[in-house]
Amino acid sequence: MSWQTMDMFDLGFPEHSFDCVLEKCTFEVLFVKEKDPWNTSEETVARMNAVMQQISKVLRPGGELLSISFTQPHFRLPLFRMCCPAWNFEYKTFGQLFHYFFYIGISSTV
Fold it and tell me: d(Cα 29, Cα 44) in Å, to the nearest integer?
């Protein structure tokens, strides 16, 4: 295994390089300037979409995005579904007093 550092807005891997992309709280960086979690700004939506397009590019058709986050599903799922409407998203909740969420996005096969 090797670690590589790169810009999440410009992943330097060839198309369809991976079966799975693992993201742990990286998306949260895109939301640091947000003042209202119920009304995500156009800028943040555009940035989230740009990152999701990069993930879509490097995933093989039918590949999976695994996203681990403290962001609750009623905030995160609408953005995932807006950015990648052809994907199938679900989530699991973990923790007893302090919850975290494991999102699974399966890319379209087309």
Answer: 10
